[in-house]
Design goal:
2 copies of one chain form a homodimer. Chain A is an alpha+beta fold. Helix content of chain A is 32%, strand content 20%. Chain A has 15 helices and 20 strands. In chain A, strands 12, 13, 14, 15, 16, 17, 18, 19 and 20 form a 9-stranded antiparallel sheet that branches. In chain A, strand 19 and strand 20 form a beta hairpin. The radius of gyration of chain A is 23 Å and the shape is globular. At the A-B interface, strand 8, strand 9, helix 7, strand 11 and strand 18 of A face strand 8, strand 9, helix 7, strand 11 and strand 18 of B.
Chain lengths: 531, 531
Amino acid sequence: MEPADSAARARSWWGWGYTDAQPDDAECAALGALLPGTLARPLPVPRVADLPIGRPAATPPAALAHLVTDDPRARAAHAMGKAYRDVIRALRGRPGRIPDLVARPATDQDVADLLDWAGGQGVAVIPFGGGSSVVGGVEYRGDAHHAVLSLDLTSMSRVLEIDPASRSARIQAGALGPVLEQQLRPHGLTLRHFPQSFEFSTLGGWLATRAGGHYATGPTHIDDFVQSLRVITPAGASTSWRLPASGAGPSPDRLFLGSEGTLGVITEAWLRVQERPEHRASASVAFADFGQALDAVRAIAQSDLAPANCRLLDPGEALLAGASPDGSSVLVLGFESATAPVGDRLAAALVLARAHGGRAEPPTAGRDAGADPAVGAWRSAFLRMPYLRDGLARMGAVVETFETASTWDRLPALIDAVRTEVAAAALKATGHPATVNCRLTHAYPDGAAPYFTVAVAGRPGDEVAVWDEIKAVTTDVLHRHRATVTHHHAVGRDHRPGYDRQRPEPFALALRAAKHALDPHGILNPGVLID
Amino acid sequence: MEPADSAARARSWWGWGYTDAQPDDAECAALGALLPGTLARPLPVPRVADLPIGRPAATPPAALAHLVTDDPRARAAHAMGKAYRDVIRALRGRPGRIPDLVARPATDQDVADLLDWAGGQGVAVIPFGGGSSVVGGVEYRGDAHHAVLSLDLTSMSRVLEIDPASRSARIQAGALGPVLEQQLRPHGLTLRHFPQSFEFSTLGGWLATRAGGHYATGPTHIDDFVQSLRVITPAGASTSWRLPASGAGPSPDRLFLGSEGTLGVITEAWLRVQERPEHRASASVAFADFGQALDAVRAIAQSDLAPANCRLLDPGEALLAGASPDGSSVLVLGFESATAPVGDRLAAALVLARAHGGRAEPPTAGRDAGADPAVGAWRSAFLRMPYLRDGLARMGAVVETFETASTWDRLPALIDAVRTEVAAAALKATGHPATVNCRLTHAYPDGAAPYFTVAVAGRPGDEVAVWDEIKAVTTDVLHRHRATVTHHHAVGRDHRPGYDRQRPEPFALALRAAKHALDPHGILNPGVLID
């Protein structure tokens, strides 16, 4: 079971995804034309040679030298994640602190040795998977450490073991989504965890950030797929037992899930995998009224129909995705099963949608999930979205997404408040009208996760400040509505102000104490989650 | 929403449940006759007046005196849980350390005040719900504290708030199962969490021990129903936000779930509740071969049929429950839904069962879950079981249950080893042949939870030592097979040896640090989980 060759296409060091998929200057200009007030021509693509990359402030010992590089391009590519804030900083030639070194361990022992060395030297260690963080999770900020090491796990990318009886697989944390799926496919299995960043994020990153998958209901957070974890901490290796369930004390795995590299480095996990679905059915439903559409999603989430996809696009999102030209909201419904046809479940969901004013297109069933035109349009737009964001950034626009979750009772007011207040903040910060769109990405019996996109022309050269002003208002709105600071993007450094207010103080005490016990030198991802 | 009057029937201070449901002397003798080597006549029912109850070693301050009692019967009833080990110690007049005081707080502030006082005085505090612990979770052992306070939460038993849109309820932790269900029923809602101890255990106990419900698949551990928790710790009150899901750092709730009273006192929770099921169908399936029956359960658990009940009884369990007289294993299948008929799902499960050699009785569908005779027999026996255990204990028998969970690949060998080695250990310890029965209580796609019952005549007067010898072998077998020390009974003090070996050492470091941060005086449930 060898890893797939995922490096055949060149990755962008500064922007989302593959360089050959980035919009060219003409496409950037066309995108900019949609947003009043953007630049006349795109900012140039940044070059590594222009970055202020100095000599590394630390040198690894000879025994570890073969794992470590100080190559400028590698260091540049590990300096930041892929938030709008990161992209625009790169475009404006003001990136975050460039790490001194990039290490690529091949074994748990390599990781332990690197942590030992870094702990002794006071070198900060930033665990790094696919580098797709959109919350400042993989950069170093401040100057409390004299040197910074980016710990890139992608050399540890193999599916090590498969237990077909228990439908479980032991997988190394550095495997990117396609790399692990390619190794599971010959066994007829899939992890079936498809975040939007699937191609550019790793299992370890998903686990450390409690990533949310593509699926709308049922188990969708990676947490639910975890049977056991192996974590290398400065205080030793932690291996939990493979168990389908346990009631033995607080879950050890749940402490490391979401710890964002602050407590240890996840190097492998046993995960629950699934048979590949054979039966599919999908449909889209248009709603004239967004509030009624919310009620429809709630009714479906509170039934036991369990759709794989149940995404609601507001009129702006639906227009952008090409899913509806007429100002309707669109609900994209999909069902999947490895064992039985799902047409009946789709039909039952459509009955619920119609009862709330939905106009359903005739459903499409069979083996092709993308057969419904609106569904297909939405899917392409979904994967293309981050590239377009970068294209707009090159036009000096401020374009970013943020997401949250709330119980149903608070959801309509929350969405209204975000729309109104964030649009007002964007206008105030830029003098330009802003677009604020919303979709529901995940639906639960007790609530849902809305996902917002904001786009506005920036103040040339001040885009970071503009975004920070908008973000502060966002954080405040979410806090007032007791909506979580993040449903699946993680906390990182960018969400710290909201997280610090959301997290119960006794839990902060406990987490700080746990951090001190496991990372006594304070080298692991400093500034993330806790100080 | 006032609590139900759950105290109408008298509770036994020393044995399971209601005194009027305990087997009388004649029934005890009849039970004993089934087990070779037991006593000729039952041990007498123990009396509080015979217990060594001294003057309390601590006196609460005047401001808290109204919450605290030193009544001997109350102290006796709070001295231990309801494990076999507890029952036989009471019967033999050698109970655990009797607490000095029993407190019954009415508010969070009462709890905080009691913790403050106890912390200042070095008084151990044992949080106490229904007192149904079967793992030594609610008694004090050792002598590191000069006095012991049992903190009985059952005065805090109200459903405080219901959010029908989000199908959620805010419930105080001291509510016993029937007390909270009675308050939810007028709203058409149910928590649908039915552990075997349902009548005699509280929400707070379920949360603190990660209790498993009656349902065999899908969300069954109480953990999955938690939206938010309120926990009073000596370092302050922790209130997490009500959220359907969140990716903001490690879950605060998951640290307190399973903390067994060592980190704080859970006083209330927002929980996901459900509409009451309207549609039901059940059936039983007989298997000549237990191994084939295991395969059938696995096939059903790995489908998306999601039975509410999927319990497999081995021949001994089936015989005892009156579900099968002919040496077959019996699979009890049940489906429930609030939204749609479930006959098709039952039929599909029966197809899978038959494919693995099962002989299904014609299924029963409709509103009466107990219509199938084997299902009904099993249900009555299930609730009666702990009373019969006490009856056998009065005959000097050693009768106890233990449970675990394992992935499917290891399950058959695990069950064989437990049967063989535990029966041998019981024979060695007593000279009498032992019965070791097994049922599967919960089934997951990646594994299942087997539940064992062992019964053997004891060595008169030495029953505790006999059980401890058997338990040590049990712990060893589970450890060798990497099966969890507990699936849903918790760790308490009785499972510490196994838990200490199972828990990853870095997690132990983190948990100890968290404990020290939240409970700096070390007063909360000392000896449970960690030292």
